Amino acid sequence: MNENWQEHAPTLAAMEKTNPFSVPDGYFEEMQQQLHSRIRIRQFDDNENVFKIPDYYFETLEDKLISISKLEGLKGNSQTEILPVPEGYFDTLEQRIKAKLDSEELNAAPIKIKRLQSNWITYAAAACITAIISFGIYFNTQNNNIEAQMAKLPADEIVDYLQLYTDAGDAPMIINSIGADVDISEIGSEVSEQEIEQYLELNL
Amino acid sequence: MKQVEDSEILEMFANERTRNEAFSLLVKKYQQKVYWHIRRMVIDHDDADDLVQDTFVKVWKYLGNFRSDSQLYTWLYRIASNECITFLNKKKQKNNVSMDELPYDLSDTLADSNQVSGDKIQMKLQQALITLPEKQRLVFNMKYYDDMKYEEISDVLGTSVGALKASFHIAVKKIESYLMNND
């Protein structure tokens, strides 16, 4: 069949077998050198690999790639498929936020800002008054306590004290301190003349 | 210049001291055959250059394992053919081009005046060739341009002789039809 193909294709058979393709000058002369260079480089590839790889790297590589591809497949699912968002949501979001802000500004009461600096005088005045009152109460309490204690002392103890610790100069002060409702004329009415003489001898 | 026999090349390559020299001899002997086999498939010179280098690098790497149950050059052609098919498939995927659209992609390269220097009829033939499926184009090129025997082509592609004959016959008919119907 094929031995007589020229009979079935006269046009083709009549054509000259020529090479229509052009080749750069010196191509075949340089090919040997290029091939040798390339083979020399390949010899480095054939040498033992200087790079270390983890143990069982290639054995586990396939499983890792499958896992990664599955994860990538999940990632490929649009976020909207998992968490749907209403249509046009992001288009109107900015406007809705602005409207809400405007609404809140109108309804908000004015915020009073207390000025601490103008109130310090008030606080200081209040503190002073409190201190004064406190001291007054304290001292008043102390005086009452002294008078109450003094009232409880027996009279003869007071006399003994005065005899021991007073001199002639204290007489006027003591006389003045005696209460007004006490009749001076009655003082000494119970004291004998002998006692008066003894007193005078000791203190004058 | 007397060409070195394949057996001698293989013997020299087996010896580590003469391996580089053997490889040089091998490249010198087959570089043009391999180049044109690839170039006719991918059209673009730079693409062909890359694939030629890839082919010979693989030859260097695996020639030590070559069993002499086939000829050395059919083994070379097998590597080169696989590189071409892999490249064209990658090109389709990379450019998101379907199988039907790849001919138009290669046709653009063919139209580049830097790539071709043939006359109009030769250009037309190349245009016809790139409309063929890749494996069918390989069969046609090896039969038409390289004048290889079907048994040798079978060694290269791993396809039966009968299937290759049928494939070539269909390719010839398509090309003839294209040449007749296109200006």
How would you sum up this structure, described in words?
The complex is a heterodimer of chains A (204) and B (183). By secondary structure, chain A is an all-alpha fold. Helices cover 68% and strands 0% of the residues of chain A. The longest helix of chain A has 37 residues, at 116-152. Chain A is rod-shaped, with a radius of gyration of 64 Å. Chain B starts with 5 loop residues before the first helix and ends with a helix. Chain B has a single domain (6-181), classed as RNA polymerase sigma factor, region 2, helix turn helix motif (Rna Polymerase Sigma Factor, Chain: A, Orthogonal Bundle), CATH 1.10.1740.10. Chain B contains nine helices and no strands. With 183 residues, chain B is mostly helical. The A-B interface holds A 1-2, 5, 8-12, 15, 17-24, 27-28, 31-32, 34-36, 38-39, 42 and B 20, 23-24, 27-28, 31-32, 35-36, 39-40, 43, 45, 49, 52-53, 56-57, 60-61, 114-119, 121-123, 125-126, 143-145, 150, 165, 168-169, 172-173, 175-176, 179-180.
